Amino acid sequence: MNTESATSTEIVFNPRTLTPAQFAELGVSHLAYIKPVTVEGKRVFSIHAANGVPMGLAEDSDTAAVAIIQHEMVPAHVH
Hints:
Layout: H1 20-25, E1 31-39, E2 42-49, E3 54-58, H2 61-70, E4 74-77
Parallel strand pairs: 1-4
Antiparallel strand pairs: 1-2, 2-3
């Protein structure tokens, strides 16, 4: 005997309906951006959460990526 319902509820995600605040929080706990910046005349790499909040600095892009991965997040480069 089949106990499953014949109908199911499907949730459809439409990113076009997100508010700016919702869009800013999208992926915030899973994705971090690496961006080259200059601090006190030295090129370093800034690590930002998906919503743009600065999280740290690294001397090179590889070190930034490793730090992000160690925190169980996915790194993304911004050029």
